[in-house]
Amino acid sequence: MGYGYLFIAIISEVIATNLLKATDGFSKLLPSVECLVAYLVCFYSLSKAIKYMPLNVAYALWGAIGIILITIFSVVYWKEQINTPTIIGIGFIIIGTILVNTFGTGH
């Protein structure tokens, strides 16, 4: 159950963050409202997820998967550039998330 809520939190966070860029500094009404709604869904779902799983595990997964997906979207959809240090940093995030989930005290 916790992982289902976490999945919803991650997807809605990725949607909200992409909409955040589309708001153009909250100067466009529709993307701004959609962004805020998506963030509400995100944080509500994350709050439900941590009722069923340790906070450190949920947050590590939420953050890492969100960063990876946002980076992919920023390159593919927004046509932003990515460099080697960014890729290395994302690799460290993935390694850290694996360590938290494998050896963390929450399991």
From TrEMBL:
| Compartments it resides in | Cell membrane
Principal location class? membrane
Q: Report the Pfam families cross-referenced here.
A: Multi_Drug_Res
Q: Which GO terms describe its molecular function?
A: transmembrane transporter activity
Q: Name one GO cellular component term.
A: plasma membrane
Question: Record's PANTHER family?
Answer: MULTIDRUG TRANSPORTER EMRE (PTHR30561:SF1), SMR FAMILY PROTON-DEPENDENT DRUG EFFLUX TRANSPORTER SUGE (PTHR30561)
Say which family it is in.
Belongs to the drug/metabolite transporter (DMT) superfamily. Small multidrug resistance (SMR) (TC 2.A.7.1) family.
Q: What is this protein called?
A: QacE family quaternary ammonium compound efflux SMR transporter
